[in-house]
């Protein structure tokens, strides 16, 4: 595959790359997947076989699950999964983790032990605002915590 632009923002999609020759994106590479099962899968067209990849310089992708890729330039893959057998040019960077509440509720306890209260925004208090996200990283609700009472 040789192309100028490769864009995929479809959650849970899969791109299969040829295992012969080099797959080249010469202009813009935009890969923005979700988390977990909603990541974009980048895999060889022949199972368990390396595929060569030449992306644009200084590329960053998000929400991908990559395996068997031999990239000739550095690719930073944030909030992504190293599916194995990738070369050192794949740098699996920052992972954004979300706490997902079963339903917004007063007194819900976060995993770190922080108790939050669902409140109306009150400008008399300085408040810590926590934004909760669904599994698809879509905003669900906001929680605020008074820092001073």
Notes on the protein architecture:
It is a single chain. The chain has strands spanning 2-8, 14-17, 22-31, 40-44, 51-54, 59-62, 64-66, 69-71, 75-78, 81-82, 90-92, 127-133, 139-146. The protein is mainly beta. It folds into 2 domains: 2-92, no CATH class; 98-149, no CATH class.
Describe how the helices and strands are arranged.
Blueprint: E1 2-8, E2 14-17, E3 22-31, E4 40-44, E5 51-54, E6 59-62, E7 64-66, E8 69-71, E9 75-78, E10 81-82, E11 90-92, E12 127-133, E13 139-146
Parallel strand pairs: 1-3, 2-4, 3-5, 4-7, 5-8, 6-9, 7-10, 9-11
Antiparallel strand pairs: 12-13
Spatial gap, N to C terminus = 61 Å
Q: Helix and strand succession?
A: EEEEEEEEEEEEE
Number of domains: 2
> Using DSSP, what is the number of strands?
13
Low-pLDDT stretches are 97-102, 109-149
Range of strand content:
35-45%
Which range best describes the helical content: under 10%, 10-25%, 25-40%, 40-55%, 55-70% or over 70%? under 10%
Characterize the largest beta sheet: strand count, sense, and whether it forms a barrel. Answer: 4 strands, parallel
Q: How are the strands of the biggest sheet laid out side by side?
A: 1-3-5-8
Q: Please compute the radius of gyration using only Cα atoms.
A: 20 Å
pLDDT averaged residue by residue: 76
Structural class: mainly beta
Tally of alpha and pi helices:
0
Shape descriptor: globular
């Amino acid at each position: 595959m040789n192309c100028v632009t490769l864009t995929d923002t479809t959650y849970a999609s899969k791109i299969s790359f040829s295992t012969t020759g080099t797959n080249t994106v010469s202009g813009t590479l935009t890969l923005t997947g979700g988390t977990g099962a909603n990541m974009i899968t980048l895999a060889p067209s022949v199972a368990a076989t390396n595929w060569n990849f030449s992306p644009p310089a200084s590329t960053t992708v998000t929400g991908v699950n990559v395996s068997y890729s031999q990239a000739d330039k550095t690719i930073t893959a944030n909030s992504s999964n190293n599916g194995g057998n990738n070369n050192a040019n794949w740098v699996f960077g920052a992972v954004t983790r979300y706490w997902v509440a079963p339903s917004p509720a007063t007194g819900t306890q976060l995993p770190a032990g922080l108790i939050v209260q669902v409140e109306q925004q009150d400008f008399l208090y300085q408040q810590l605002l926590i934004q909760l996200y669904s599994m698809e990283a879509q905003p669900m609700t906001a929680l605020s915590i008074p820092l001073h009472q």
